[in-house]
Protein: DUF998 domain-containing protein
Organism: Georgenia faecalis
Amino acid sequence: MAKGSRTTAGGATGARHPRTPASGATGVPGTAPRAVVVADVAGTTYRHLRLAVVALAVLLLVALATEILADGGRERFGSISGYYYSPVRDVLVGSLVATGVVLLAIRGRRGWEETLLTVAGMLAPVVALVPTPVAADRADGGCPAGATRCLPPGAAESVESSVLALIVVGALVLAATVVGAVVGAARGWPWRDFAAWGPLVTASLVWAAAAVSFWLARDAFLAVGHYAAAVAFFACTAALAYVNGRRVAARQGVPLMPAAAYARCYRAISALMALTLVAAGAYYLVTWWADREAWSATVFTAELVLVVLFTVFWGLQTAENWRAEAVIEEAGGGAPAA
């Protein structure tokens, strides 16, 4: 009897698609349900996850614009992160945490792309849950004597609870991943290959750095944790754009525009993000050295530019990979399949 055939009550054989359930399997007698191809479902889910990142970034930008317009067009917090203390807080925190989860869920190409996605995904919730300190005159008397900036009363307790939960969940996820890697090693997992274990080791180091600083230097963590996580997140994004700018040029048959055009766009986005980070840091260093007050909207402007560039990059990469059922590599580490 041929493989994939079935025998009828009368003894005759009839061919059947191996993925298609028998007639009536869905509970409707006499009907042949449509076969569901797993690859199609995975591809659709992959695209929706990518689109979700773009939608979350747009959601945040729209919420910020709405709040600023409601305030007469005046930007009053000095940074996007400062809107943690405004009605935008729920959208700000929710969109960043969700973005982090999606970045962790999406598997990048083995090597630097996967590592950078993993680190960025870990940092996004920290950016969301650890707010920027506010000036002492706006902290409702919650700052210690002599402190110029601090978290308002109640905020520190909220941050400590959220970060502790984040550290515990991170430890559980890493432990499960390590167990999976050990099991995989027993089955031939290439543990000597950096592209295979690099993301796991890097994620473990990031988790350890956050956990140790949270436990041993709590005040410093609350004071600079947001800034460190935000700068590192955008640095990872800039590096991710650079890596993709080098990779995409070798692809063929990508949708929307030629691969060379994607490469130019990615390199430009990477350069602009790096320039924004360096320029903002240099500006504050110069104003500090000259003992002058910095422009109050410097951080807000830099963050706005970075968020827009991130949104454009992610939208372009979603378009580039639209026909891919998943971001995969050909056997032997060749160019990714389109």
Q: What stands out?
A: The longest strand covers residues 5-7. Residues 38-70 form the longest helix (33 residues).
